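Lab notebook, bench 4. The sequencing result for the construct came back, and we need a structural model before the next group meeting so we can plan mutations. Quick request posted to the team channel:

Model the 3D structure of this chain.
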Amino acid sequence: MALRMHPSLAVHVGDWLKTEIVEPAQVSVTALAAHFGVSRQALSTLLNGNSALSADMAIRFEKAFGVKADTLLRMQTTYDLAQAREHEGKIKVERFAKAA
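Done. Here's the predicted structure in token form:
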């Protein structure tokens, strides 16, 4: 039996990045977006938890702040799975039976 993490423990990686990395660095979203070579809107949308972290953006954070892209992407996947688990009962799929 696999252990399941309570959904309340899954934090959107954008929110984590904002509170643990960006705000302590005292850098504005506009300045960071310019540094990353991305639009302010794309970065703001991520940091506000309204979009998923891409691999490219994870690498940008790794290069700028030293936090591993792999870790950030695992955080995003954990959050996505927790969100899906909240409505897994609505997903109607039977176990696949192999043909003889």
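The chain has a mean pLDDT of 92.
Will bring this to the meeting.
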